[in-house]
Write a structure and sequence with these properties.
Number of strands: 10
Shape: globular
CATH topology of the largest domain: Rossmann fold
Helix content: 25-40%
Radius of gyration: 19 Å
Order of helices and strands: HEEHEEHHEHEHEHEHEE
Largest sheet: 6 strands, mixed
């Protein structure tokens, strides 16, 4: 879905020596490689240590574009240390290796990538990804994939509360919700309708250096 945007800036990226990949089996764009065949052909053994010999806690792991809390959107540097610190949030909140985490959040944001996927990598949990959030299919997905932990951000929980009530609203295995931006009245309504789910509400910013967790509920 971002093909046009990629092709628009591709000449500049190529001039700067940046390699671009599509996570697909084939690439419709000359100069952009398809990554999926290489992923599927990769061996199961751990990477040789020499590939990470020069990596330190202060090494750049990735860039994440923020929404611009101080002006226009900008790339925030995520170091290896910050990646590990944010990924450990799930463990702090009680995420376990036998959990199945369901996230519908975009992976170009910190919540979906670092907390959701990163948290699963941190503890060895299973991650269920959905390309787009669907309020009507949310709980059906949770039942289908035996989900035990859900991720939310902003008004996602309100959208769930606004769906028509169903007899099976409490028929799920979700024990914990991890996210940020839920209003107090939505929190109460969510628990009354969908059952005793432990809510771990946190606050953080991609370019920030501190965070908060409401661990008492």
């Amino acid at each position: 879905e971002l093909r046009e945007a990629v092709e628009e800036v591709l000449p500049d990226l190529e001039r700067d020596g940046v390699r671009v990949f599509y996570l697909s089996s084939a690439s419709p764009t000359p100069g952009v490689e398809a990554l999926l065949p290489a992923v599927e052909a990769a061996p199961d053994e751990p990477l040789p240590a020499r590939h990470r010999a020069g990596v330190t806690a202060s090494s750049k792991a990735m860039y994440i574009y923020t929404s611009g809390t101080t002006g226009l959107p900008k790339a925030a540097v995520i170091t290896e240390l910050k990646l590990m610190m944010v990924a450990s949030l799930g463990r702090i909140c009680g995420l376990r290796p036998d959990d199945v985490v369901y996230t519908t959040l975009p992976l170009y944001h910190s919540a979906g990538l670092l907390v959701g996927v990163g948290g699963c990598l941190e503890v060895g949990a299973t991650c269920v990804l959905r390309a787009k959030f669907s309020a009507s299919q949310f709980w059906a997905d949770c039942r289908r994939y035996n989900v035990s932990v859900i991720q939310y951000v902003g008004e996602l929980m309100r959208y769930l509360c606004n769906t028509p009530k169903r007899a099976d609203d409490r028929e799920h295995g979700v024990r914990m919700a991890l996210g940020n931006g839920m209003r107090a009245e939505v929190w109460k309504e969510f628990l009354q309708r969908f059952g005793p789910v432990a809510v771990w509400e946190f606050y953080g910013a991609t370019e920030g250096n501190a965070g908060f967790i409401n661990y008492t509920g």
